[in-house]
Design a protein that fits this description.
39% of the residues lie in helices and 20% in strands. The protein is α/β, with parallel strands linked by helices and 382 residues long. It is elongated. About 1% of the residues have low confidence.
């Protein structure tokens, strides 16, 4: 039995499905333990310790409690070196964040102990600044890199990293739950959901996620105004909350769009979120898109976001232009308008579009594919 320790800063709630699947890998000669603190430092929902120790429907997650010590953006994880030196584990997988001082030390120690070591990382390097040079040194510490996207692999290969050391592992949400829920999303239910929010039958532009500055959500309101002025009326649905909500509400009033924009607020109930996403015609993410893309595509809603990969999250790669979404020119509101207008006017077969959206999730961005990739890599690791 090969014993693997995966080290996270904390366990975000959306990680439970893939970690639960990993716990079942003993049938394939792999035994996993997840090491992390239970405290988060942002507003991403984390998993409480009770849930980690008791998973009646999906199996227990073997959990090792660490203690996070933050100094600004730098992290030291108390208890990590003890775990590394304990001889309990054969393989180590660390989050690939160069701000984690304890990971630098732990990765060096695991290499000295001749234990197979991986970083699970975005691993994207934008230039050749001092920070980028430090990242390059950091990413050379492990034996292998588990990456979220193909662009990161291409980027590191260009910078001299051996492509055979890198595996693209993608990302995922609660795939099983989403598949079960979407099977019950009838046209009648979606229409009823839409009627509960809007007093018209115009197309709905959705954004789901935290309302933060990096999402550049003011562009969604500007886009809606331009579409209305061009006699292409639409509705906008914001699902989420955050520091930008008040300024967005002010902008809606200034543009006279109060009857066409709905702020749903934060929601973590998947049964409630599913019809909101599925009844929308497009998800618009003017800034970095991240897991918003995966969430939208999982319920059949295409995604439009910008085309500058150095300013994107890796999940933007799930979008195939003209098939399950589109890209607009980074920072160009006119481009966003033209791309959105074209999509709304030319894509009329909603069922075909839904299938296109489902396909990329069903084949790549799900925990089963992630676990399969990990299994193949780690069973061959020596």
């Amino acid at each position: 039995m090969k014993r693997i320790l995966i080290v996270y800063q904390n366990i975000q709630h959306y990680r439970i499905p893939v970690f639960s699947l990993l716990m079942r890998e003993q049938n394939h000669g792999l035994s996993y333990t997840i090491a992390a603190d239970i405290q988060g430092r942002d507003d991403i929902k984390t998993v409480c310790e009770t849930l980690l120790c008791e998973r009646p429907t999906k199996g227990k997650i073997t959990f090792l409690r660490l203690k996070n010590h933050w100094q600004g953006n730098f992290l030291w994880q108390g208890g990590l070196l003890k775990a590394v030196l304990s001889k309990k584990y054969d393989v180590f997988i660390f989050l690939g964040d160069a701000h984690y001082a304890s990971t630098w030390v732990a990765a060096i120690v695991t290499r000295l102990l001749r234990k197979k070591t991986y970083f699970w990382a975005h691993a994207f390097i934008r230039g050749m600044s001092i920070q980028d040079l430090l990242k390059m040194a950091f990413f050379r510490l492990p034996h292998g890199l588990l990456l979220y996207g193909e662009r990161a692999k291409e980027n590191l290969t260009r910078l001299g990293f051996n492509p055979s050391r890198m595996k693209v592992i993608y990302n995922s949400l609660d795939y099983d739950m989403q598949v079960a829920i979407r099977a019950g999303l009838t046209p009648a239910r979606l229409q009823k959901t839409k009627e509960s929010l809007f007093k018209n039958d115009y197309p709905v532009l959705l954004f789901i996620g935290r309302l933060t500055p990096q999402k550049k959500l003011g562009a969604v309101v500007e886009l809606a105004k331009k579409l209305h002025n061009a006699s292409i009326p639409c509705n906008v649905l914001f699902v989420g909350d955050g520091s930008e909500r008040r300024s967005l509400e002010d902008s809606v009033r200034q543009h006279g769009l109060e009857d066409f924009v709905y702020f749903y607020g934060a929601c973590h109930n998947e049964e409630a979120l599913a019809p909101l996403i599925a009844m929308s015609d497009l998800c618009i993410s003017p800034g970095e898109v991240g897991l918003t893309a995966i969430h939208s595509l999982a319920y059949g809603t295409p995604v439009i976001t910008h085309d500058s990969y150095i300013h994107q999250m890796p999940e933007y790669e799930a979008i195939t232009p003209g098939v399950n979404g589109a890209y607009y020119k980074y920072g160009d509101l006119d481009s966003l308008f033209e791309v959105t207008k074209s999509w709304l006017q030319s894509r009329t077969n909603r069922d075909a579009i839904r299938k296109n959206c489902f396909d990329i999730i069903d084949t790549k961005y799900n925990p089963y594919n992630q676990v399969l990739i990990l299994r193949e890599e780690l069973r061959n690791a020596s």
